[in-house]
């Protein structure tokens, strides 16, 4: 019986990659998001130590005395927070707010537009970035890192293309299987050579462009169907388009183990 205590998925990284930049990047995005909010509400939150150009920005952007635009932009920011809570990829939303805040600041500094136009521009940028800056999600079991499949493959190539297996799943919008993702997680936990399998989940409904570039399959009528693809390093070694998504988690995990012969692959690696 396989040992269930799984070591980390990725081997110890070289010294040059030892420093963890994620907290600094998170802080950078968070500060930019706060700046974006402050530029909307700056006139209502006086800061005595602000002077010079930044103070002029606030004067330029809040001179008409109306609050309707501020409420609109605040609702947009609240929408960011709600979606970020529902979707763990909060970095994408913070980066969207960062981009919106910078555009807003540039407009204020260089164009000197009326505040109503600036506020509406800020809202439009928020909405556009909210829709287009979201990233496809992938999960490394060991650290629950958020990486897209391309980043996963690059990571495998860095640490050795023949040392890791990647299961990549594409699900069309017609498929509603609650058991599929937990089943794959269970498969990863059960494989004898722990640390050899990673999982990339791609939702075709939300990310059709990226999915089409990667591994989405179509049936004879051109309709997307579920596909489960096994990579070793950066090389595709097996593909299945007959995933029994109707099964429960346990049965589905057994099917994946059998279909892709993960036990044999790991034992021989």
From TrEMBL:
Q: Which UniProt keywords apply?
A: Membrane, Transmembrane, Transmembrane helix
The UniProt entry, under InterPro entries, shows:
Thioredoxin-like_sf
Keyword set includes ATP-binding: no
Query: Membrane spanning segments where?
Result: 24-41, 90-111, 117-133
Q: Does the keyword Repeat apply?
A: no
SUPFAM superfamilies tied to this protein:
Thioredoxin-like (SSF52833)
Q: What is this protein called?
A: Thioredoxin domain-containing protein
From the broadest rank down, the organism's phylogenetic lineage runs: Eukaryota, Filasterea, Capsaspora
